[in-house]
């Protein structure tokens, strides 16, 4: 949520083609639900031969119906019983699909499932398998007229790598080592698919994140609450509203240890955005702990390389050490989003310059 991460346009467009087909399927089942699907005739009539045939292989005849096929018929059956409610659900899903076009619009919010909670499970059973297929064999080019060939989770994750510089866009830490099938970064749903299954393969809803952010801290938690107007306005987004340019990261001397620091993360313009970021990913405590682990080796550890570069015979004094720290701060600012941990390191260096300079000088003169 801190650094901008954006899919290449061609890949985003291909994923959007699959996503739009999923929307068409949900819309059809909700607005014009079939009473039965005994063969693929209705599907071909509704979606054309390639897509209708692709969908039929995942539904199959009643006597050999798949779990997905049963979910499709369950959603259609519910829509037949409650057509007015089903139309409202379809309207809500269509509205939510455009969230990326309206992110900065005043009063922007998501409607499903917040306004139709009793439809969540039925819709999820149809919508979520699309991500399972995406994470597995993927979607072939032919049925969806994709321009870049088969699209799957691994392709998506690799596409984020060149712009990530090995830095997690959520926590500013390391993204992970290369060399595994999944490229060592987790596929995070900004809107978790458990709550917002209709957005599970939305091209603005999938990002690369470090395993810690995705699998330990964020999980199914969400910084946007129930995604009402207040929630979305109080949320950073890696493509639509990156937080790095808005948050202020500062370090103060720890009240319990004069040689350690406490990291604070704020947003002076919209305070709630920083508050929800911290609450979701626990960045203040994570950054504080990692900084203090280094400081335990000595407060001069963050300028050790710069001090070595000064060479033998250099005599540290307040002015030269302050200038050295300021040079390091300027370098880290240029590397924001390109080198891991820059945001917290800048804050610690500023604290060292302002409040711990005497400690640094004392260590460098030993």
Indicate the topology.
Blueprint: H1 9-31, H2 41-47, H3 49-56, H4 67-81, H5 83-96, H6 120-127, H7 129-135, H8 141-144, H9 153-164, E1 186-189, E2 206-209, H10 211-218, H11 229-233, E3 248-253, E4 261-266, H12 271-281, H13 283-295, H14 304-310, H15 318-334, H16 342-355, H17 357-364
Antiparallel strand pairs: 1-2, 3-4
Helix pairs in contact: 1-5, 2-3, 4-5, 4-6, 15-16, 16-17
Task: Give a quick rundown of the structure.
The chain is mainly alpha-helical. The chain contains 17 helices and four strands.
Model description:
This protein has 366 residues and is mainly alpha-helical. The protein has two domains: 9-141 and 161-233, no CATH class; 248-364, no CATH class. It has helices at 9-31, 41-47, 49-56, 67-81, 83-96, 120-127, 129-135, 141-144, 153-164, 211-218, 229-233, 271-281, 283-295, 304-310, 318-334, 342-355, 357-364; strands at residues 186-189, 206-209, 248-253, 261-266. The strands form two sheets. Strands 1-2 form a two-stranded antiparallel sheet. A two-stranded antiparallel ribbon has the order 3-4. Strand 3 (248-253) and strand 4 (261-266) form a beta hairpin. Helix 4 (67-81) crosses helix 5, helix 15 runs antiparallel to helix 16 and helix 16 crosses helix 17 (357-364). It is elongated. The mean pLDDT is 92.
Looking at how many chains there are and whether they match, the oligomeric state comes to: single chain
| Uncertain spans | none
Following the backbone from N to C, one meets helices and strands in this order, namely HHHHHHHHHEEHHEEHHHHHH
Shape: elongated
Structural class: mainly alpha
Task: State the helix count.
Answer: 17
């Amino acid at each position: 949520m801190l650094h901008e991460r954006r899919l290449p346009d061609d890949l985003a467009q291909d994923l959007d083609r699959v996503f739009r087909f999923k929307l068409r399927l949900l819309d059809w089942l909700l607005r014009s639900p079939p009473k039965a699907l005994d063969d693929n005739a209705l599907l071909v009539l509704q979606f054309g031969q390639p897509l209708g045939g692709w969908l039929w292989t995942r539904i199959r005849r009643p006597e050999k119906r798949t779990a997905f096929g049963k979910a499709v018929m369950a959603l259609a059956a519910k829509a037949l019983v409650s057509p007015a409610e089903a139309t409202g659900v379809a309207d809500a899903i269509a509205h939510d699909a455009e969230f990326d076009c309206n992110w900065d619009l005043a009063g922007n919010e998501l409607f499903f499932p917040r306004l139709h909670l009793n439809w969540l499970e039925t819709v999820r059973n149809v919508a979520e398998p699309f991500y399972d297929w995406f994470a597995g064999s993927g979607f072939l080019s032919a049925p969806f007229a994709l321009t870049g060939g088969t699209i799957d989770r691994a392709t998506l994750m690799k596409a984020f790598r060149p712009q990530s510089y090995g830095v997690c866009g959520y926590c500013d830490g390391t993204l992970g080592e290369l060399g595994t099938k999944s490229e060592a970064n987790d596929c995070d749903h900004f809107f978790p698919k458990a709550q917002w299954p209709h957005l599970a393969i939305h091209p603005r809803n999938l990002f690369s994140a470090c395993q810690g952010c995705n699998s330990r801290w964020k999980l199914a938690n969400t910084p946007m609450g129930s995604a009402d107007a207040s929630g979305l306005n109080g949320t950073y987004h890696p493509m639509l509203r990156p937080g790095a340019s808005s948050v202020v990261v500062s370090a103060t001397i720890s009240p319990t240890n004069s040689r350690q620091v406490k990291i604070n993360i704020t947003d002076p313009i919209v305070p709630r955005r920083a508050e929800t970021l911290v609450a979701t990913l626990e960045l203040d405590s994570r950054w504080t702990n990692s900084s203090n682990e280094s400081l335990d080796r000595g407060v001069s550890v963050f300028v050790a390389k710069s001090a070595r570069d000064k060479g033998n015979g250099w005599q540290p004094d307040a002015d030269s050490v302050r200038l050295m720290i300021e040079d390091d701060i300027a370098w880290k600012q240029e590397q924001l989003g390109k080198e891991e941990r820059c945001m917290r390191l800048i804050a610690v260096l500023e604290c060292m310059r302002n409040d711990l300079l005497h400690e640094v000088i004392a260590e460098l003169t030993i």
